[in-house]
Amino acid sequence: MSNIDNRELKSKTYILGIRVNNVSKDRLLTAIEKKIIQKKNFYIVTPNPELVLASTKNKQLKDALNGADFAIPDG
Q: Which is an annotated GO molecular function term of this record (predicted)?
């Protein structure tokens, strides 16, 4: 498992207030593998346009999406 640059994993953008990670597939998979090896709990979301739009009217959904360890663009 290669070392990953934490700054790259923290690179993000926001779409209507929803955080989406801006990271390469390889870096993301390495970070996920690290969490699995360390037996750390985590969750991944794939915010699609419908979820992002719905989150503008639903604070719990917005909090759940933004609380994910990894938010991967859908599409």
A: transferase activity
